[in-house]
Amino acid sequence: MKSEDTLYEILEVSPHASASVVKAAYRCLAQCNHPDKNAGADAASQRLARINHAYSVLSDPDKRRRYDQMMALHGNLNDRRGSGMAATGSARPIVADRQVSRAFVFRPLD
To answer: How many CB atoms lie under 10 A from the CB of residue 78?
Structure first.
């Protein structure tokens, strides 16, 4: 994961994702990266901190609106819409050029 990842990429959801999809993605990622499940892994606790921050912004409608406006202003959000899904049409997201294996994947409904 790069430091310039958007909050949507951190939670592995589309910018069009509904609040319920954002919440489900957060719960799944928080459980997978919880320090109790990854004893001694500093990377997991750092990732969990980033996941918590992303969820705190994207779960609040006002903060999410302001974040989207800021990203659109800088041109980052529109360039990345639709990214995060494999170009082959598979249901697995691509994160940092590697496939992520998970029981389910969050995709936009549209």
So the answer is: 11
**How are beta strands 98-99 and 94-95 bridged, if at all?**
antiparallel
List alpha helices for the chain, DSSP H.
Answer: 7-11, 19-32, 42-58, 61-74, 76-80
Higher pLDDT, 102 or 9: 9
pTM for this model (two decimals): 0.65
**What residue numbers bound the domain in which 32 lies?**
7-99
Give per-residue pLDDT as tens, 39-60: 777 888 888 899 999 999 999 9
Question: For residue 11, what is the domain's CATH number?
Answer: 1.10.287.110
The SS3 of residue 104 is coil
Strands (E), the chain: 94-95, 98-99
